[in-house]
Amino acid sequence: MNLVPAWSNAALVEREVPTIRLNNDADLKEIYEFGRKLGQGSYGAVYEATHIETQTKWAIKEVYKPAAGTSKVAMVENEIIVLRSVNHAHIIYLEAIYTSPLMIYLVTELCEGGDLKQLLQQKNVFTEDETRKIIFCLADAVAYLHKSGIIHRDLKLENILVKNCLDEDDGRFDIKVADFGMSVKTSGVGIENIQTEACGTLIYMAPEMMSGRGYSHWCDNWSIGVIMYMLLCGKPPFFSKTKERLLRKIMTKEVQFDQPIWENVSDAAKYLLTRLLKPNPAYRMPAPLLLENPWIQGDTRVPSGPSNALEMMHHYMEHKEKTVEESSLVSFEDTLEPFLALLTPSSKTNSSGAELSPEGDSSSCTPSTANRTSHVGGKHPVQLRAKQRRPQDKKDLRTGQKPTSDLSKAEEERHSSSSREGLSSANLQLLQSPVINQNNTKKKKKQKNHTTQKNVRK
Questions:
Q1: Are residues 145 and 264 in the same domain?
Q2: Full residue range of the structural domain in which residue 365 is found
Q3: Would you list which residues are annotated within the binding site for ATP?
Q4: What does pTM read for this prediction?
Q5: Catalytic residue positions, numbered
Q6: Higher model confidence: residue 277 or residue 441?
Q7: Is the confidence at residue 391, as pLDDT, over 80?
Q8: Is residue 4 part of a domain?
Q9: Domain finish residue from 318, 340, 362
């Protein structure tokens, strides 16, 4: 299954929605023919209606004009502002607005399948595949809203409408997010956009909203998790009659999957629910990441990728540090390798295992294998510097000549006699160690300087 989100291609500019003033309510019936009632609420009722001229079917939401200064005025105005500014495949479409002295009529697209709460009551539970399609459409709409700076704040089963009856559409789901009366439009994610007003339905309410400490658009992601949980098992993940007890349950208990119905649900779906129902909003999976989750595309294996913004940042920083280390290592090796190629002669090995120069002179033995096994990054062996390996080749900067060292000659004679007596190659290499040569040379120079100073004082 290849589900493609529509939120990235949807328009974010405000649409031109016609607003028509009526002299009285009877004038509307000359434009639309009213049919069956689709729903009833405290705001008014929703009817199926047919446009007489075009014979197009619509839904008309009747809203009684509230008294000036009441909260209902703000809710109605808020819904109109939001619906005018959105245009998305899974958000209810506002066609026109009619106003009369007593009523406001919102003409929206018709959803003949009812809402998800009614459908859940009929089915008891949804299959995992049905839930996947619904959650994809819902996350797509929420990602679009959040990108537009809109927080819904009242996502629940009753506010998610089904476009067509399932029997008429081969069981395919086309949902529409509706009821934006409690939504709020923000100007970004700064501290000035933090909300404090608790609103919505209790069992869908995010814990940060209940706590009164401030919340942002992450509250909608919690509601998506509650809806998904209810679609799969028919019950909410947390339930209590009071806000305080419900908050305590959420903060002290993890999501439970102990009902028998969960045996038929994949581990990937359960894992996803644990990421959506995180009490700490910073660790909660956002809608855009939900759209990219493998479970949404039909992969029921448990994902291993990041599931929230903090994990994404952590993974990014780890990847960045690793990339910097690797690039530094490669740069160091590239710089060192040409010098190593020049300083390392091609060697042969005699019967005793000691490495010989191309001329076969045993006095130029290289360090033993034990001394050549240290690596940079586990790739290239570190060779001793030429200055350390051949101190006798170092020129005297004052005279331009190579210094003649009695100690070096003595060591060569000792080396020859040791070779004649059958010393092992390891002893020869220890004898020829550049570290010893260097230390002895330094000691000899120090003694010579001391003697010179003594003579001067005399």
A1: yes
A2: 344-457
A3: 61, 158-159, 179
A4: 0.66
A5: 154
A6: 277
A7: no
A8: no
A9: 340
